[in-house]
Amino acid sequence: MRVIAGEFRSRRIKTLPGLDTRPTPDRLRETLFSILAPEIEDCTFMDAYAGTGAVGIEALSRGAARVIFIERSIAAADVIRQNLAVLGLTRRAEVLPGRVLQYLAFRKADIVFLDPPYSLSAEYSQSLSLLGGAPPPLTIAQHSVRQSLEEEYGGLRRTRVVKQGDNSLSFYRP
Questions:
Q1: Count of CA atoms in the C-beta half-sphere (13 A) of 40
Q2: What number of other Cβ atoms are within 10 A of residue 105's Cβ?
Q3: Widest distance between CA atoms in the chain
Q4: pLDDT of residue 10
Q5: Which residues are within 8 A (CB) of 126 and not within 5 positions of it... i.e. 6 or more apart?
Q6: 113 neighbors 142 (Cβ within 8 angstroms)
C-alpha cells in the first residue's frame, strides 16, 4: 500500500496480513481526494474504522491539519501508530482504539470518513444516525454497491454518490 499524492507521495505504508482489514483501493482513494481537494487543507479529518489508516494518512499527506483514527483492532491501531511514526506524523494524529460508536459523539471533525467492515452493516446506520444528531460539515461513507444507505440520517442529507467497481462513496452534508 502506498500514499498516492501530497507530501508523502509514493511512500509505502505497512498493512496487516490477511483479510480482516479491507484497505480502500488506490483508485478509490484517488477519486475521493480529488473530490475533497478544496476542503482538505487545514481541516480536522476523522478516519473511522481506520483499518490500516491509509485514508487518514492520505488526508495528512494532502494537507489536513489533524487526523483522528478510530480502530477497534489493537493490531491495526498499532500498525497505524507505526506508519505515523515512520512518516513523522504522530504530532498531527490521534489513534483511538475501540468501537467507533463510543467516540463519534465526543470527537469532532470537519470531515468524517466511515468505512465499517461490510459484515457490520448495522454500523452504517448507527454511525450515520449518531452523526446526524450534530452533523459535521461533511460525512462520507464507503460501502458496497450492493448496500443501499438512507437519503437522510437526522440532520445529514446525502448529496452525492460515487460508484467505482464494487465500492460506493455516499457524501452527506447538514
A1: 20
A2: 11
A3: 40
A4: 63
A5: 101
A6: yes
Would the CA dihedral through 36, 43, 141, 166 be positive or negative? positive
CATH superfamily of 26-173: Vaccinia Virus protein VP39 (3.40.50.150)
Q: Which of 64, 40, 172 is nearest to 114 (CA)?
A: 172
Residue 17: pLDDT band with limits 50, 70, 90: low
Q: Please give the Cα distance from 153 to 24 (Å, whole number).
A: 24
Q: What is the pTM of this model?
A: 0.91
Residues 129, 150 contacting (CB under 8 angstroms)? no
Crossing angle of helices 26-40 and 54-61, rounded to 10°: 40
C-beta separation of 27 from 17 below 8 A: no
Domain residue extents for the chain: 26-173
Beta carbons within 10 angstroms of residue 121's beta carbon: 13
CB 173 within 8 A of CB 151: no
157: part of which helix (H) or strand (E)? strand 156-164
Number of residues written out for the chain: 174
C-alpha cell at 40: 482538505
